[in-house]
Amino acid sequence: MVELEHLTVKEIKEWVESRDRLLPEEIAALEKDQRVSVQRLAALCKRLQREEMRALFQRRRLYRFRRILYSHGFKRIAGVDEVGRGPLAGPVVAAAVVLPTGLPSFGVDDSKKLSQSQREELYKRIKQEAIAVGIGIAQPQEIDELNIHNASLMAMYRALSALQQAPDFCLVDGRFLVPGLEYPQRAIVKGDCRCDVIAAASVIAKVTRDRLLEELDAVYPFYGFAANKGYPTSQHIQALREHGPSPVHRYSYAPVRLAGENAAVTRGEKNSDCTG
Fold it and tell me: I want to staple 123 with a disulfide (CB 3.0 to 4.6 A). Which of 52, 97, 138, 207 is the partner?
């Protein structure tokens, strides 16, 4: 045990920073020190360790589905999730991820709960550490033809098919299984909040789709895709009214269909004026 009374505050800080984790008795010694700055350091250490324990507990909680499956002999467990059901434009994007056995070195959560910078950082780490990552896309025309539910399942199937090596079990976000898989699967309601490998897939899918919409923004700048990602914001709805739908809009969605009909009427009136 370090004799704190013989150290300056700077030396104590350097000693704390050199340790991976302080023992309870070491934190207690910091708390007993008469110097206020050392007591504050003790409080900081306690708070950081509590946060670390909560993060570890969360990682273990999210790992439990995979842990059970590993115990039953499965080895390559994929998680699959999709994003983009609600937007008026752009594709629905699914991602499939296979993580190594054991707790991931990073904490994951539902992509909707994370900031853009957090998603981008997690995206890099998942891509670095995952055994396999697959992306599946259903384009707006396919959404119009199949409906969003079936198009989402198709995108999930494509993501799983894009994995470099087929999994031997799949954990699916939501209430529905993916049609056509040749290996067992389980659907988990709110799986992106309950299972680490599905949460990882949600991050990959979200970042991938956001980047696609930023590219579409450069092609169709009227609609603000870079900012709204195709969702029905007031600015997006107003642009639809003014310019009509683009080729990447979903014409089976009511706001887009109405905008298309209004645009057709407007063109008809202009043609009529010209010929009259």
Answer: 207
Ramachandran sector of residue 17 (left: φ over 0; alpha: ψ -120 to 50; beta: rest):
alpha
* CA-based torsion, 18, 21, 26, 32: positive or negative: positive
| Rounded-to-integer distance, Cα 147 and Cα 9, Å | 65
pLDDT, residue 87, reads: 98
88 and 119 share one domain: yes
67 lies in a domain?
no
* Structural domains counted in the chain: 3
Structure tokens at 171: 């954990």
Band of the pLDDT at 111, cuts 50, 70, 90? low
Domain region containing 28: 4-59
Same domain, 80 and 206: yes
3-state SS, residue 138 = strand
Distance CA 270, CA 153 (A): 42
Nearest to 179 by CA among 154, 162, 213, 196: 154
164 and 209 together in one domain: yes
The yes-or-no verdict on residue 271 having pLDDT over 90 is no
Structure tokens at 223: 């609609």
pTM above 0.85, yes or no: no
